[in-house]
Design brief:
Strand order of the largest sheet: 4-6-7-9-8
Number of strands: 9
CATH architecture of the largest domain: 2-Layer Sandwich
Number of domains: 3
Strand content: 5-15%
Order of helices and strands: HEEHHHEHHEEHEEHHEE
Structural class: alpha+beta
Oligomer: single chain
Shape: elongated
Radius of gyration: 40 Å
Helix content: 55-70%
Low-confidence stretches: 315-321
CATH topology of the largest domain: Heat Shock Protein 90
CATH superfamily of the largest domain: Histidine kinase-like ATPase, C-terminal domain
């Protein structure tokens, strides 16, 4: 309608101009100049007025017919072209209205019917890419909720079983009650650690960083090793460090969690009498880097990416030890919130090497 109205307005303006010009041209003929009409010489103003009227009448008659045809053609052409151009937009609208939890797989998948790539086609492609991301996020959320429900059911079942068994014994002694209390406390600690890990993953993924300050990754290694010193001694692990100053920018509490989880994961999924190496340095690209390399069961390279998903522990050999299965998932979430990268690769003889690279803190300016 807009295109047709514009063409009609322009056509009417042109016709009016033509009508005015026809009159002006006729009026510009001098009345004193003799005019020969069918062999008769005359200079009558009546003849000039007749010529002016005839010229304007012809312009109005033929111009009106031309304007009508132009407006009709413009209307039909704009209707067809606009319909074909906006057809993908109608498809986008239809898909958006039909979307639901069970139809996230639907895609627009339209192309420009006129050839090339216009704004509507790019909109449809962007809409399809958005749906791809939404489906991946929704699938991951569903898998995460299912895994979390399954994992939380285990400590709750343990607590309920212990309580039921102990209460079923009317002659339970103090030692039996103490044993039940210890089991309940261990199960509660596991559930608490799992919930805490879930909160860390959710908060860092949703809200990002609240604090940004220089943090030396090398200074975070010793507290992490002290936290697992007892288990390292009990299992006879050999620990080596190669610590150079590597100052990153970020939240010190979250980065402390990253280093702690890497070390804890390396210890828990190690083998008795194995080894553990922790290294911090400035990366080749200028970032701050910390690497934890350890011995352990052989890890399939195809399973490495799944280790960073919640509740993935890399096979039965790794699930034999205690742990919530959130260690590396928390590492991945925190590193992503810091705009860093995390890379893992299997150790050929068995074990895993995990490297975290974070943006380096800007150098301090001297006074």
């Amino acid at each position: 309608m807009l295109a047709t109205g514009l063409v009609a307005a322009v056509s009417v303006v042109l016709q009016v101009l033509a009508w005015v010009l026809a009159g002006q041209i006729s009026s510009s003929i001098p009345t004193e100049t003799p005019v020969v009409v069918e062999g008769v010489v005359t200079s009558s103003p009546v003849l000039l007025a007749s010529l002016r009227h005839q010229a304007q009448h012809n312009v109005l008659t033929y111009g009106s017919a031309a304007v009508t045809l132009v407006v009709i053609a413009a209307g039909l052409l704009s209707w067809v072209l606009t319909g074909r151009v906006l057809r993908p937009l109608a498809r986008v609208t239809a898909v958006a209205q039909e979307l639901s939890q069970s139809t996230l797989h639907e895609r627009v998948r339209v192309s420009n019917s006129l050839g090339g790539r216009d704004e509507v086609s790019r909109l449809a492609e962007a809409f399809d890419r958005m749906l791809d991301r939404l489906q991946l996020t929704f699938d991951a959320q569903q898998r995460f909720v299912a895994d979390a429900s399954h994992e939380l059911r285990t400590p709750l079942a343990v607590m309920r079983t212990e309580v039921d068994v102990t209460l079923a014994d009317p002659h339970a002694e103090e030692a039996e009650l103490r044993r039940m209390g210890e089991v309940l406390r261990a199960a509660t600690d596991r559930a608490e650690a799992m919930v805490s890990g879930l909160l860390v993953v959710a908060r860092t993924s949703a809200t990002g960083l609240a604090v940004r300050e220089p943090v030396d990754l090398a200074a975070l290694v010793w507290p992490a090793l002290d936290a697992v010193r007892t288990e390292v001694t009990q299992r006879g692990l050999v620990v080596t460090e190669e610590l150079d100053s590597a100052v990153a920018i970020g939240d010190s509490a979250l980065l402390d969690r990253v280093v702690g989880n890497l070390v804890e994961n390396a210890v828990r999924h190690n083998v008795d009498g194995g080894w553990l190496n922790v290294r911090s340095r400035v990366a080749a690209g200028g970032g701050a880097e910390v690497t934890v390399r350890s011995s352990g069961p052989v890890v399939n390279p195809q399973d490495v990416a799944a280790l960073f998903e919640p509740f993935r522990r890399g096979g039965a050999a790794r699930t034999a030890h205690r742990g919530s299965g959130l260690g590396l998932a928390i590492v991945a979430a925190v590193v992503a919130a810091h705009s860093g990268t995390v890379h893992a690769q299997p150790v050929p003889e068995g074990g895993l090497e995990v490297t975290v690279t974070l943006p380096a803190a800007p150098p301090r300016r001297g006074h």
